[in-house]
Amino acid sequence: MIKLIDQDWKRCLTIFLASAALSLTTVGINSTPTWASKINQKIEATIQTLQKSEERWIQINLAKQRLIAWEGGKPVYAIIISSGKKSTPTRIGTFKIKSKHKSTRMRGRTYDVPNVPHAMFYDGNYGIHGAYWHKKFGTPVSHGCVNLAPNHAKWLFNWASIGTPIIIHK
Description:
Helix content is 35%, strand content 35%. It is built from 2 helices and 9 strands, in the order αββββββββαβ. It has helices spanning 2-51, 150-159; strands spanning 56-61, 66-71, 74-80, 93-96, 99-108, 111-123, 126-130, 146-148, 165-169. A hairpin with a 2-residue loop joins β5 (99-108) and β6 (111-123). It is globular and about 75 Å long.
């Protein structure tokens, strides 16, 4: 009799643990993609809306390390960039240019760069700007900003205005 009770108990415990593990796995699988999916859906919807407009906007594709300047659905300028490296990634999302500076000083814990040309900030200290100190465009090397060759930064700076939408995605 004790062996039957012991076997029933083991079987119930095994079923319970398997169910718990399956539930935790399902929760773990669904939580991140749902969050990421909502951001991607918002980005895609914003792109579709902007492409139907006549508005100027900037699209940054981090996977391809490319920036495209758009006027509605028409691309008008495309360039290679350097975004943030893994330890200091460029933020994904929809933003607007909040301030523009022909030249500025940028400082962080591990850098202090004077005379950064054609900087346009869109989220705190995150911005798009010229980078005269490297030529590694096409490779993520920045501290989170979007680096452009100085001549491309100048063109974009002159083309965009405060309030210009910026869409950053992978």
